[in-house]
Amino acid sequence: MLFSEIVRQASADLKANRLRSTLTLFGIIWGIVAIMILLGWGFGFRDMMLEGMKKIGEDLVVFMPGHTSIGVGGYKAGRPVVPEMKDIEAIKLQCPSVAEINPQISRWFFIKAETESRQYNMRGVLPVVKTMNNWQVAEGRFITEDDVKNRRRFVFVGNNIKEQLFADESDLVGKKIRINGISFLIVGVGVDKKLQSSTINSRHDDQVLVPLSTALQLWGDGKSLDLVFAIPKEGYLSGQVATEIRSVMAERHHFDPEDTEALVIFEFAFFEKMFNLLALGLNILLGLIGIVTLFIGGVGVMNIMFVSVQERTREIGILKSVGARKRDIRLQFLAESLFITLLGGLTGFLLGSALLGAINLLPLPPYIPLPQNSIELSLIVVFVMILTGVISGYIPAKNAAEMEPAKALQYERGETAAGKKIPKPLWVSRTLTGELIGQAFLEIRSSKSRSFLTMFGIFWGIAAVIMLIGFGTGFQGFFEREFGKMGEKTIFVRGGRVKSERSTYREARRVRLSEKDIKALKTFPAEVEDAIPEYDCRFPVVKYGSESRAVHTLGVVPETLKMRNFLVAMGRFINQGDVEESGRVCFLGANIHERLFGSRTRDVTGEFVNINGIRYLVIGAAQPKGLQMSISTSYDDDKLLIPFTAALKDFSGEKYVSRILVSPVHKDRYPETELEIRKTLSRLHRFDPEDEDALNVFSMLEGMDFLGYIVLGLQIFLGGVGVITLMIGAVGVMNIMLFVVTQRTREIGIRRAVGALKRHVFQQLFTEALAITFIGGLIGLGIGWGLNAGLSVLVEILRSQNTQLMMLFSPENSLFASIITVFFMITAGFIAGLTPALRAMRLNIVDSLRYE
Fold this sequence. Notes:
alpha+beta, six-stranded mixed beta barrel
């Protein structure tokens, strides 16, 4: 068949009913645009997050000091293992997989510039840190080998130091700052890394870098290191680097290589892999939604082709009677369908590309991911577009090819297909409403395949709205759940140093917190719901039988159970009696339970353990929290909890607490709660409430407002895509109803001639459209809820079986989303039925009776 003939016939099909064709092409156009927006946003989100993760460096392995948990060769458990400069040389010689190694020391010091003073993270580094940790120079230069060799007091500062200490200065090079009271010359300023998402103790913008030799001389013992970065050679994996380093360090520091607590090692590749899985899952979900949205547009094309086949039934009979093969008929209709789809698809591709380009030109905040157009996205769109065209045309083409010539030549208008008459009604009603509903079901049954395809647009549109809004809800729930493992609305308050002078108190005076501060916070609170003490015993050695571990131990109170979000797996938690009596009892984190006693299922209540040689009774164990995205010194599964009073008695000997845990009345009022904390404690300790360094206040709630805005924007964006998808489904119903009006023109004329009023015709066609919409809508509600529930179960199974899949999350069902969906379903029904019903109502009686 000639291409010109295909174009001519396809154009004729489109011109046969311009409104119906325009709406169908719009469905294809929006389907392509939806794929480009959804996948483009998914790719943009992935690229933004990966860029943020790589701002600290790529394929890094970092190791830090730890404590031995297993005794080896006469060496006891609980010994600190601290990397030293000599170890760096040994690693270079004995680890063939290591390409570069970057030792550092880290301290938190007050940095003073003229009248301004704030606390920042000081790092002693080598020049290799520039490439390994992706530092870029905005002003001046970086630390050099000569600086290290000569122990120069030069400093390279992060961008926040420039903004916060030198707000009005344009060029900092050559200026001086004091680090812990010692004068340093600024030689360079870093490019800002505001989107940095991977950190070790601090973001690069909040760091000041000095030569490692200078830092070791001034603030170290000349050999001990706080953290060491390494990267693998080409052809090696970061896992091999970690294994070799642990083996070398184990030999040099006399610990078991299997003792993972002796040397703390993080592989950034592990976290990148986890995020890539998250991004892949996100893009698959968004891509599937976009693809099915395009298929809804394809259903419109399929309906046009069904109408074309039906209207050209006699033509098909003639073609077959003069020798046309099934293959010829099939290819003809398939080519026409593909042409219509490609016409709409090309338009959609151009509009989508223009839209993505326009969005990227908007002055949006840097933390909002921008949809990305790419060759990868273009190839996906072209493939799906062609696939849609083939699928849309195959069934109509097959039906046309399978027609029997004799029956096709006998076809008359009013039949649903060659040789098939309209089915009889299911019931005869004496009421107008019953007759309207019966006629609606009759129309649906008259062409089951076409009705199903039309309903498919509606029920997928409804399911898409539920899933997309549920995806936004699931995204928020995931972060709230993961960050909430350390406490759903917990604020951590630690004492700092008074920076500003007030009354007769000298600068940099320490603020030490005690139970008086807790009582003050609980007295006439407006924003504070509760405040409790906590004492950090650090890492005492815990022994049970032959097992010996250095365990992060905290002194707590009964309210800690709720505030830190622990769940009891067996036994009980620490109670008020334990606190009042300074009872030597302990509650075990899930991992400590397993490490000391060999199994998490073993009932250990009533057993005794020795903590730094002091006998404690085990009263309970916690349920595992799994991988945490928020930690304080250690994972909660790796903690051991004892009564607060016992901790002060056995490990402190003083009255001061390590931190205060505060629970706000409303978690969405974190700024107001922080202000109340600072004002209350400033009166006791006599410091300026605006002095941020006097108190270190931290909570995951600090970022939840920001996350809330992102989630709201995400839900509006995704919900909008779902709603437009639903509207495309409504357009499909409208197309069918317009065809039904055309097909039943004479019937409408006859009904009007025998006395039917315009409103009767309107009610009949409008009811049919509503019936199709509501049946499809109810199916969509069930499918949407079912898919969300099924995905939730699947994700939980995957998360429980593989820690690398902990970043996965699923859409969540919500009553709010369902109410919104029902509203749009009703709206879609009105849109789908109004135009066809009005057209049927306005038909001229005489013209209708003459229609052929």
